[in-house]
Every structure is written in structure tokens, then in C-alpha cells.
């Protein structure tokens, strides 16, 4: 295995590796495994443990194979000895790879790989809005910390601090190493880093245009599961959004809990859909509502690109400060506001107004 090596841990990462590969060879299927070793691209799936992510990744892996990519499924978290076995099996391809492509620079697994093997060329593709935070932290020379985490270091973080520090250096441009960020998000390029636009050309060329339904669809988020947003506030806002926009379906985030989704279905009557593929592909294949309403997330940047020219309107709802849990990171409000504030001009911005948490919410 030589040439270019991609490590993915989520369905969206794999989708964006496909988009990146398409930009290297526009007009043809991604990158054929039969091409010269210098350009051949192999995708290594560092498989997660949750069933929803695994299911979506297997379907995305088949799409990648259909495009001529070589896909290697690695049970990187498969019990005792999985980490050592994975590092041993990937050592040779990592050493020989001309370019390494990653989707999550905050991943402890990826950081460990980068401390052992320094790539000559590195590409970071989107795995959500964390790309914005990665670019900002890299530009400021800060340690890499996910935006929804508290600032203090716990015991685990202290143990892994040397790994994170070295990985951060490997993620920065240096003599003999180039760094590219391939993104659909509005990021400011850190010094020495190349930013390449992801316009979702492969998605548009491959799927659709979709059939449009008469109503609206809601897009869920895992902000409750990550400890950022209060569960009761979230359920109330979903109910009000469904009524205000005549929504019929709720597209669940793959990390949303079964208990929360059951509550949403019972309280609102919405059809809860667990997508089998990333929402950009589901929406492009259709059917999809004429309006798509989302909480702050990557889709307020990606769906307008994937659905360009279809007539679908995307709207984003602001997260009010009173929705946040006391345990939320102090950076949470600013980060979420930044997502909505930088959304594309064609995205409607909705604001929920309530004088008291128990009051009915109004959107404007």
C-alpha cells in the first residue's frame, strides 16, 4: 500500500474524502486503485463502536469502492490488543504514504498515529464544524481541545498531553511538510496552510436532483448528548419548530439517544428518521422538504452546496444562552453563534424568543 492514505472514523469524513478525491480527478470516478502508486488512494476505516456510525460507514465504504477506491476496514477499537494490532498493521503503509488524509485532528487515535509517523503531505477534511476550531487553534498556536470540552485537563488528558502536543506539531506546516484543509466551512487559513474549497461537486454530480415534498424537515443535533444543551429546552424547541414550519420528519443525528428520539416522536408526532447515509446524500437523493430547518451544525454550510439549484430553503435556529446547561463549556455559546453567523447568505436565521423557559417560543 503506497501513495495516498486516508484515515476516517465517521461517515461524513468518508464522504469528504470522496469529495477531495473528486477534485483531484474531476469528471472521472474518484481515484482508481489501478493508477500509479504515487496517486492511488486507500481509505482506512478506523471503525467506531456505535452501531449507527458503523452502519453508515459500511454503506459509505461501498460507495467508495464503487468509485474505484480501495477501502480497508480496521477494527481499531475491537477489544484488548486492538490498538497495538492496528499500529503494527498500519506501520508500513504509513511510512510509505506520500500524503495522509484525516478527518478529525482532535481524534486521540489519529493523534497517536501522527506521533509515530510524520507525513510529508497532510490533508484535513471536514468532520463537522470542528474544522473551524481546529484552524483557529492551529493559527493561534494553542493546544487542540474540542470546543464543547471544559478548559481544565482531567487525568486522561494529562496522560495524553505529550501525544497531543507532538501531534499538534505534526498537524502544522513545516520544512518538508505541507498542510491542506479541504472544507466547506468559512475558515481563515493559518500561516502556511492551504485552504481548498469543498463545493460538494461529487455529491451533485452523482445524485439527484431530488423530489421535493410540500412540507418542512427538521435536522437533529447531538448537543444534548454532548452536555451542551438542556434536554427539556431542546424538546420544547423541536415541538415549536415542528408546529411553526409544518414539519413532518425529524432527521436524527447518529449520536442522538433512543430515549430522546422516542420523546420527540411521542410529543410532536414527527416521523423520526435515522438516515442510512450522511444527510447531504440523503437530501440530494430525496425526497426532501422544500424547507430544511437545522440547529447550528455543519449542515447549514453543506446542505446549501449539496442542494444548489434545487429550490430547497435551509434555515438555522439560534441557540439561546438559557438553553445551555451549567456544565457546558464557556466557549459553547460563542462557537455556536459563530456557526449560525457564518452560514451562507441564502440560509435563513431563526431566533427563538421566550420571556420564560415555560413560555411558548416564537420564531422570527
What does this structure look like?
This protein has 364 residues and is of the alpha/beta class. The protein has helices spanning 11-24, 51-66, 82-96, 108-116, 130-140, 155-170, 201-206, 231-245, 258-268, 279-285, 299-306, 332-341; strands at residues 3-8, 41-46, 70-74, 97-102, 121-125, 178-183, 193-197, 212-219, 247-251, 271-273, 288-294, 313-317, 348-350, 352-353, 362-363. It starts with a strand and ends with a strand. 42% of the residues are buried. Mean pLDDT is 84; it is low at 28-38 and 354-362.
Rg from Cα: 20 Å
Strand order of the largest sheet: 3-2-1-4-5-6-7
Give the amount of beta strand, in percent.
15-25%
**Which structural class do you get from the secondary structure elements?**
alpha/beta
In terms of quaternary structure, what is this? Answer: single chain
For the record, give the distance between the C-alpha atoms at the N and C termini, rounded to a whole number: 54 Å
The major pleated sheet works out as: 7 strands, parallel
Q: How many strand elements?
A: 15
Q: Note the overall shape.
A: globular
| Mean of pLDDT | 84
